[in-house]
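Can you give me the bound-state structure? Components:
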Amino acid sequence: MGRRDMADIISTVEFNHTGELLATGDKGGRVVIFQREPESKNAPHSQGEYDVYSTFQSHEPEFDYLKSLEIEEKINKIKWLPQQNAAHSLLSTNDKTIKLWKITERDKRPEGYNLKDEEGKLKDLSTVTSLQVPVLKPMDLMVEVSPRRIFANGHTYHINSISVNSDCETYMSADDLRINLWHLAITDRSFNIVDIKPANMEDLTEVITASEFHPHHCNLFVYSSSKGSLRLCDMRAAALCDKHSKLFEEPEDPSNRSFFSEIISSVSDVKFSHSGRYMLTRDYLTVKVWDLNMEARPIETYQVHDYLRSKLCSLYENDCIFDKFECAWNGSDSVIMTGAYNNFFRMFDRNTKRDVTLEASRESSKPRAVLKPRRVCVGGKRRRDDISVDSLDFTKKILHTAWHPAENIIAIAATNNLYIFQDKVNSDMH
Amino acid sequence: MEFKLEAHRIVSISLGKIYNSRVQRGGIKLHKNLLVSLVLRSARQVYLSDPCPGLYLAGPAGIPAPPPQQQPGEPAAGPPAGWGEPPPPAARASWPDTEPQPERPSVSHAPRVGDEVPVTTVTGVGDVLQGGEADATEAAWSRVERSRQAAAREAEGPAGGWGVFPEGSLAARRPCGCPLGGEDPPGTPATTPRTACCCAPRPAEDEPPAPPAVCPRKRGAAGVGGGPAGCPAPGSTPLKKPRRNLEQPPSGGEDDDAEEMETGNVANLISIFGSSFSGLLRKSPGGGREEEEGEESGPEAAEPGQICCDKPVLRDMNPWSTAIVAF
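Here's the bound-state model for the whole set.
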């Protein structure tokens, strides 16, 4: 795959707080924003579909001359700010720099200037005989995007996550070893709130893999580690939150021990539930639901693709074992979703304990087509449409998924394609 | 035995990953390298502790599995091959065939097991590596060793044993005869923090007897135990113990013989890999430091400190697998 093809690979997907906008970032540093079309009687078949709203280049490749390091332009994360006025704002980050973008619409323009003509050229003053007040006339919608803040030089290591605080004034950014707290209006300063860098790097045993603020309590945040643990921290307790308030860890099952136990226990994503009561984590083979009130073990564990457990060595060889899958809650916290290989993604209903495997592909995604549940067979009886484990395509991986905050609409990033699926039958959350 | 082959394969793959990570766009990924280093340690420990008496991994063509009778004659001949008998003289001649391509001249300078590497070569490499890089390499490898021992020590805890493979750990216990459970006596930490298992290689603090002036890099790259491949100090560290020593349970947990042999195994592995690293260090622009296995050395300003090598990279890991196997 050439460099240009790789630039189109989607690296992050995020709905805004209303679900009206959907932002995607890609490896080429671009951000594409989709907007949901309002349902209209004129075109009933296109109600609620997402169209491209704006595209802009968020990050460019950079070169750190001091360290002879190239800084990738790949967008690692996008987080929307809560909307406070007519404009939309989002944070986008690559490995080193976070940027605050403001997205505004312009659908009117002033006409009737006294000193300028229609093209903007200065008028000959002698031709001006009377004064007029310029009026705003409607124009074709223009979406303007401008970088309002650039938060640079805050991180030595690669930024893996950003999270906006519920106070709407601050946000945090996490790299492998440190977490910084920023104020959205201040770019030349950030506060370090977590630092797990050991005094001697030879003693390094774990890194930070993901972090998120609590959705309601502005003083709480969680970060996950490569060892599979979660740490809940309270910023009221101390300025430096190296000491966790709660440590969520599940003891390892000794019967599952292998060379790769550590790799597969590394948490690749952590998400608070909308209620704020639970956390969802993803490691290589499972998704787990944790109750904030219970640190000893998760309350629910779902196997995403346990059939890969016997193939860990091959997956280590082809680097797939390092894939970082994300996970998502639906709006009512009753269903969780995560991606897998072969363009499959999985949904687990926490109430009914039923799960489904679906595929994001062009064939299955004709308009208004219903996704057919897929099955991976692991030997034994094989049904007609089953896929065998050995014929899974490990280059087709769904790492990034997002769920509309209120409705049953999901966005699935399959390499360089974005699929948006809607559950028309059950469009309301329940 | 499958464990050993599997472990060996995983070691090769892991080394390849670490090697390739240095030229990846965007710099070295700390998380991934940390995970790879954990796997590498696990695999190497299984590899070293799995007894497999009588197993000699066949090297590439031209380096047949040396027969046991070669051992007595070898010790005086040159640098030890702790992993088994050094390749017979015929193998040395064929050794260049298995060397990597010329675009990596530093590797061809690398000390070869069984060769009487001229002092000049070693010194040359050593000179090129300034203190920083040597420290980096040494620190990197000592970190590997120490952490591995720390990990092994932790493993001794509640589980009561190294549980990589249940069978493997049991097998590992028996031949070396030392109880895997049981911590070091409190008095030892200052000297050589060993794991409870005597089969652990000597940690970096243990200075090899080789004169530093001659082999500064050797001390760094093969900081563990000593001596190593290519550094002509035959008498100083008897690392030529044949593999079968593994079968003889040494007394106590501090038997020097078995430990040194094990050290030699690792030392050779390290020196191979270390030498390649040092060669690449020399090639890298800016004289910066390498970030190896997730570790960084040097001041804050230099972190992560890795260099994107713009020289052509040898992607084919076969020479490395071959090099490791040959020992």
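A couple of observations. The longest strand of chain A covers residues 135-151. The radius of gyration of chain A is 24 Å.
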